[in-house]
Design brief:
Layout (H helix, E strand, L loop, with lengths): L1 H10 L5 H24 L1 H8 L3 H9 L1 H8 L3 H4 L5 H25 L34 H25 L2 H12 L5 H26 L27 H16 L40 H16 L2 H32 L3 H30 L3 H19 L45 E3 L4 E2 L7 E6 L6 E7 L9 E5 L7 H20 L1 H9 L7 H17 L1 H11 L2 E7 L2 E8 L1 H36 L14 H4 L2
Antiparallel strand pairs: 1-2, 1-5, 3-4, 4-5, 6-7
Helix pairs in contact: 2-9, 2-10, 2-11, 2-13, 3-4, 4-8, 4-19, 5-8, 5-18, 7-8, 7-9, 7-11, 9-10, 10-11, 10-14, 13-14, 13-17, 13-18, 13-19, 13-20, 14-16, 15-16, 15-17, 15-20
Length: 642
């Protein structure tokens, strides 16, 4: 009989749990790849559409809006729908959402930046004494003024749909596997899915490394027409290519789900007596539970269960700890790439590969180690809380030195070290006053004095040398603001980039160790929440936990980080009389505030974990008589199943 079932499974793979696991692993990898690619592309999208960090943080977190609206009701619909088909519909919606995110590239005009040649081959951006004064507001057409708003709308719409699409995928997929896999195989299958899921963000950063080295308008401009290099601060990579690729991959991943049945044959396990498929998943309840509730009864029950769990101090303290930990992770996931770019002056593509090859794998190891320690040493609740305290304490120890590790600020004429007090506030001086430079110009050059100027005009450069065929500038000469003793100096295009590897390497090492220690606490913290609620409340507790983390961490944290980053800007770009992206940051303030908010969240999480440990210590002392501690692996099976 067993051989016959194997033969049928080979003929019809859609009756096999193993094939479903392979499909689910690919889809969840694609889902996390889309989310990771968006967060990693934040700084590029900022430059392309002139967004502030606060706005880009809102875009990065907006998928939580759609997700939050539906996550709680997954518990109700989990046992009532054809789960594979719902997952397939979610995959199709991911494909649609990611394509919508890429639409601004196809619907809007080409990327425009300040350059030394205008479209009609007239020289611009250089000092021509006697030329008419250039007004501050640039010439804006109605179409150009509306481009940023259209792009923002499409990005927010795509992110909201992406959040809705991801709601059923993981909970329905995991419950489907757990229901029809054998008891011995289920943990192994779920481990495969989780492992594939954690690879999603890593692959996203590798994909960014490949796409962001390609010019954004590669589909519209011939190679010879690109005047920028990837090291130029005005460079914008082909951010949209990753979303097009993800859209196609999600569409392909959706196809198999429409051929799986509502129920699969239960896998046989010779070590156990097989009865009916067990409903032990996170979203399923035994008969007499959620299956017998109407939707109205389910909605009425939510506040009752919520209040019952909020009266549990163990549940509340752990939720607050996870909110702080998740807020720190959400901010890092969104803006760590930008921090590396601005603080250590590395390219966007290089920053993405650093994160994908260093930070993410180390965090994955921390997650695995946290679960392995619990399994190997059979820790009690108090011991688990102590493990979390030690791990988060070590995270703080390794995180604190990052507060002082940073590259010295590059000197920028008129801005750094003196802070500009407004649009062009300190940019006009005696050496360039006769040039009538536009205060909105941004075409940075590096003088032979190693000082950066925001444009050739602001450096007083009146001539340039270039390749006639491509109009790529070689250098600028006769610069009145450069040179000494009456002699005029020269400059080359681009920012003054100094080697800062002596700070980058220790920063990456310490940040990886801190991330590793923080990730160790995640799995134990999650288990402590499950073990401190009633068995009948576990499904609700999981839904409540995910809801609170999205509302109080994943949604507001990127906006908070973006707002804090914006406070360190010393020169804003202006487009159509509207403040757009930041051109220059006070790098010291950027580092202190960015690392400072991380330390704040980590310290709050550490305090909550210490409180949790003392709650368990107090509970243990209050018990009468010698009682053995309650180990996680000794909890009755009926209570473990959620």
């Amino acid at each position: 009989m067993s051989d016959l079932k194997k033969e049928v499974s080979c003929v019809n793979p859609f009756r096999s749990v193993k094939f479903f696991v392979a499909c689910q692993a690919l889809l969840q990898l694609t889902q996390l790849m889309a989310s990771g690619y968006m967060k990693g592309s934040v700084s590029t999208i900022e430059r392309r559409f002139g967004f502030s960090s606060q706005t880009s943080g809102l875009v990065a977190s907006f998928n939580e809006v759609g997700n939050t609206l539906l996550i709680v009701f997954v518990s109700y619909f989990g046992s009532r729908v054809h789960r594979p088909r719902v997952i397939g519909c979610g995959a199709i919606l991911i494909s649609v959402a990611t394509f919508i995110i890429s639409l601004p590239q196809f619907l809007l005009g080409m990327y425009e930046y300040d350059r030394s040649f205008s479209d009609n081959s007239n020289l611009t951006d250089i000092c021509l004494p006697g030329q008419p004064s250039i007004p501050v507001p640039e010439q804006c057409t109605l179409k150009r003024a509306a481009e940023s708003q259209v792009a923002l709308f499409l990005l927010l719409l795509g992110q909201a749909l992406l959040g809705i699409a991801t709601v059923p995928i993981q909970p329905f997929g995991l419950s489907y596997v757990d229901d029809f896999a054998s008891k011995s195989n289920s943990p192994f299958y779920l481990g495969i899915i989780f492992a594939a899921t954690t690879l999603g963000p890593a692959i996203a950063f590798v994909l960014m490394f490949l796409t962001l080295r390609i010019y954004v308008d590669v589909d519209k401009v011939p190679a010879m027409g690109i005047q920028l290099s990837s090291s130029d601060p005005r460079w914008v990579g082909a951010w949209w290519l990753g979303f097009v690729f993800t859209s196609g991959l999600a569409a392909a991943s959706a196809i198999p789900y429409f051929f799986f049945p509502r129920e699969l044959p239960k896998e046989e396990d010779p070590r156990e007596v097989i009865a009916e498929p067990s409903k032990s998943s996170l979203l399923s309840e035994p008969k007499g539970g959620l299956e017998e509730l109407t939707l109205l009864e389910f909605v009425k029950m939510l506040p009752v269960v919520l209040m019952r769990n909020f009266k549990n101090p163990f549940f509340v303290v752990m939720i607050v700890a996870l909110i702080n930990l998740t807020s720190m992770i959400a901010g890092l996931a969104t803006f760590l790439g930008k921090f590396l770019e601005r603080q250590f002056r590395v390219g966007t593509a290089y920053a993405s590969i650093l994160i994908g090859s260093c930070n993410l794998p180390v965090a994955m190891l921390g997650l695995l180690l946290g679960g392995l320690i619990m399994k190997k040493f059979h820790l009690s609740h108090k011991q688990i809380s102590l493990l979390c305290v030690i791990s988060m304490g070590l995270c703080l120890v390794f995180q604190f030195p990052l507060f002082f590790l940073g590259c010295p600020a590059q000197q920028v004429s008129g801005l750094i070290p003196a802070r500009s007090s407004g649009v062009g506030g300190g940019l006009v001086s005696d050496c360039n006053r006769m040039c009538n430079c536009s205060s909105t110009a941004y075409n940075p050059i590096c003088g032979e004095d190693s000082v950066e100027y925001i444009s050739p005009c602001h450096a007083g450069c009146s001539t340039l040398n270039y390749y006639p065929s491509s109009k790529i500038v070689v250098n600028y000469t006769r610069c009145s603001c450069i040179g000494t003793g009456g002699a005029m100096g020269s400059a080359v295009p681009g920012s003054c980039i100094k080697d800062c590897s002596r700070f980058l390497t220790p920063f990456m090492v310490l940040s990886c160790i801190a991330g590793f220690m923080a990730s160790i606490t995640q799995t134990p913290s999650f288990m402590l929440i499950l073990r401190n609620v009633k068995a009948e409340d576990k499904s609700f507790a999981i839904g409540i936990q995910f809801l609170l983390l999205r509302l109080t961490a994943w949604l507001p944290a990127p906006v908070l980080y973006g707002t804090i980053i914006d406070t360190t800007c010393i020169l804003w770009q202006w487009k159509c009389q509207r403040k757009a992206a930041c051109l220059y940051y006070d790098s010291t303030s950027f580092r202190k505030r960015f690392i400072g908010v991380q330390l704040w969240f980590e310290a709050c999480c550490f305090i909550c974990l210490v409180i949790m440990f003392f709650l368990y210590w107090k509970k243990e002392r209050s018990q009468k008589g010698p009682k053995e501690e309650n180990h996680l692996d000794e909890i009755p099976e009926a209570e473990v199943k959620t």
